[in-house]
């Protein structure tokens, strides 16, 4: 089974505390989600392969390293995943962006697909799926299933807050997909919201509630 990495960096934990605060407004919330996404991306791309090149500095010739031909794609799960895109692109501006639209049926709590647009060369890329919240795991499981249908060989999932139930479900459904998470919370409540969580990430990012 693929690893689940819980990131305990002090900067990430500090920003999550601000995200959880119900008094944090939409503007600050959006900025924090983007910043946490950027910090998490730093860790999620740690295993990118390098190759040695020779360059001329102002002083001398030097052998140094650059990323070795691996191409990235980020795929946010709409709509809350959009909040993480700016942060990750600030680190990897050449990456391509796909979009998968899923929403949760309020009665069944199951994901319903309404949109999927991925880069034409997605099968040649390392894909990182983005969603701030991993609650039941349904949306993440379905999104990764859709990506795997395009013959993608390398997929990672990155979220800010996860519930144990969602993490277990995702790892069971896709044991080959590493999970990067900034906080593993206590549980899901009766409405399938993460406790203590931070509320509805999409509503807080876009100010729709």
TrEMBL record:
Any one GO molecular function term: magnesium ion binding
Activity regulation information from UniProt: Allosterically activated by GTP.
Cofactor note: Binds 1 Mg(2+) ion per subunit. The magnesium is bound as Mg-PRPP.
Family annotation (SUPFAM superfamilies): PRTase-like (SSF53271)
Catalytic activity, as annotated: UMP + diphosphate = 5-phospho-alpha-D-ribose 1-diphosphate + uracil
Biological role stated in the UniProt entry: Catalyzes the conversion of uracil and 5-phospho-alpha-D-ribose 1-diphosphate (PRPP) to UMP and diphosphate.
Protein name, UniProt field: Uracil phosphoribosyltransferase
Organism of origin: Hydrogenoanaerobacterium saccharovorans
């Amino acid at each position: 089974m693929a690893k689940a990495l819980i990131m305990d960096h002090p900067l990430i934990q500090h920003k999550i505390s601000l995200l959880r605060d119900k008094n944090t407004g939409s503007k600050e919330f959006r900025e924090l989600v983007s910043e946490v996404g950027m910090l998490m991306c730093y860790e999620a791309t740690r295993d990118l392969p390098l190759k040695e090149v020779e360059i001329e500095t102002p002083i001398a010739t030097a052998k140094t390293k650059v990323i070795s031909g691996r191409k990235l794609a980020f795929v946010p799960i709409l709509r809350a995943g959009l909040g993480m895109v700016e942060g990750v692109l600030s680190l990897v501006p050449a990456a391509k962006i796909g979009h998968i639209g899923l929403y949760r049926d309020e009665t069944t709590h199951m994901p319903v697909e309404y949109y999927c647009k991925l880069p034409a060369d997605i099968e040649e890329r390392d894909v990182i799926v983005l969603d701030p919240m991993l609650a039941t795991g349904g949306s993440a499981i379905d999104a990764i299933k859709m990506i795997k249908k395009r013959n993608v060989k390398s997929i990672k999932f990155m979220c800010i807050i996860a519930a144990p139930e969602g993490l277990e479900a995702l790892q069971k459904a896709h044991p080959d997909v590493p999970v990067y998470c900034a906080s593993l919370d206590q549980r899901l409540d009766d409405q399938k919201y993460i406790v203590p969580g931070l509320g509805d990430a999409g509503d807080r990012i876009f100010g729709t509630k």
